[in-house]
Amino acid sequence: MIDPKSNTHDYNLRTEQENLAYRNLALYTMKQRMVRLAGRIALFVMICGLSFVILYPFLRLLPLVFNHLKDVGTPDIIWIPRRFSTQSFQVAQYLLFSKDSLVMVKSLLYALTIALIQTAMSAMTGYSLARVDFRGRQLVFALVLLTFVIPPQATLISQYLRFKDFDVLGILRWLNGRSVDLINRPMSLYLLAIFGFGLKQSLFIFIFRQFFYGIPKELEEAALIDGCGFYGTYFRVMIPNAIPAMMTVMVFSFVWNYGDNYYVNYFHPDGPYLSIILDRTFQETQFDFIKSLAWNRFDILSFNTFTFDAIKQAALITYLTPLLALYFLIQRRFVENFERSGIVG
Fold first, then answer.
1. Whole-structure pTM value
2. Domain check: are 136 and 273 in the same one?
3. CA distance linking residue 286 with residue 99, whole number of Å
4. What are 163-213's pLDDT values in tens digits?
5. How large a percentage of the chain has pLDDT more than 90?
6. What are phi and psi of 166, to 5 degrees?
C-alpha cells in the first residue's frame, strides 16, 4: 500500500523546490534588469556630459552675439541677453561681404569642385592599389601613407617653387620660351587635387583602398564573365558599390576645403575664399579699423574687446552656417556611410 503521508511529503518538497526556483529566477531577472538600467543610466549621463561639453561653447555664444552691443561685457548678463539685437551680425556681414557679396557662393563652389576632383581621383587611385596587381604596389601604398604622416609644411617649398616655375617636361618652355607662373591662380589648387596632393587626399585614397579591398572578388569575376572589361567593371560594378565611401570622402573634402586657409593662402592668396577673408578681417591689427567702422556706419559709440569678440563670433557663425545646414541634412546617411566606408575595418 502507498503511504499517503509519504506522497504528501514529496508533494510539499517539490512545491518548496519549485517556489525556490521561481524566487531565484525572479531575483536573477530583477538583477539583470537592474544591471541594464544602471548601464542605461550611465550611458545617458555620459551622453549628457559629452553633449554639454560640445554645446557649452555654442550656448555661451548666444548671449554674446544676440546681445545689444552696448550691453556686451556687462557682468550681470550671463545666459540671457538684456536686449536682443542682431547688430553683431550686421557688422560682421558687412565686413565679410562688402567687397564681394558672392564670396560665400564662390567659396562653396570652390569647395564642391575640389571635393568632386578629389573624390574621383582618390577612387581611381584606391581601386588601383586594392585590385590591380602591379609591381611596386605595396611601395606606392606605403608612399601614400607616408604623405599622410608627413606634415604639409615639409613639402610646401618644393610645391611652391614647382608652381612658380611651372613646366611640363620642358614643353611649355620650348613652345613659349619661358615657363608659366601658377602662383596666385586657382589652377595650382586644382592641379594639387588632380595629382593626389590636395588637402588630406592621402587619407581619401586610404579610405577607398580599404573599401575596395573589402569587396568580394566574385563581383569582378562575374562582371568579366558577362563581358565587362577593366573600365566597365570599374564604372558599372565597383563605383555603384562604393557610394558609401564616395559620400564620406566627398563630405570630408568639402568641409575641409571650405575651411582651408593654408593651401589657398599660399597658392591663391587673392582668391575669393571666405576662410581667408575671415582670418584677415579679424586679426588684432584690425581692431581700430573695425572700431571706426562700427562708430561711423552703425553708430556704435562704445567699442571694446568684448564688442570685437561679439562681431568676430557672429562672423564665425555666418561662416559656419552652410556647414551646419549640410550636417543637419545628411547626418543620418553620413553616419551610416561612414560606418560602411572601410575606415574602421
1. 0.78
2. yes
3. 16
4. 888 888 777 777 777 778 888 888 889 999 998 888 889 999 999 998 888
5. 12
6. -80, 130
- Whole-angstrom Cα distance, residue 79 to residue 63? 6
Helix (H, G, I), strand (E, B) or coil at 166: strand
Residue with cell 581692431: 287
3-class DSSP string for 119-138: HHHHHHHHHHHHHCCCCCHH
H helix and E strand count, the chain? 16, 0
Cell of 257: 576645403
Cell of 130: 586594392
Q: Is residue 104 part of a domain?
A: yes
Residues 293 and 91 sit within 8 Å (Cβ to Cβ): yes
Residues 314-338: pLDDT tens digits? 888 889 888 888 888 877 666 665 5
Burial 5-15, CB ≥16 within 10 A → b, else e? eeeeeeeeeee
266 and 226 co-located in one domain: yes
In a domain? residue 156: yes
18 and 157 fall within a common domain: no
Number of C-beta neighbours around residue 114 at 10 A = 26
Question: Based on the structure, what is the number of domains in the chain?
Answer: 2
Residue type, 106: K
Report d(CA 6, CA 234) in Å as an integer.
82
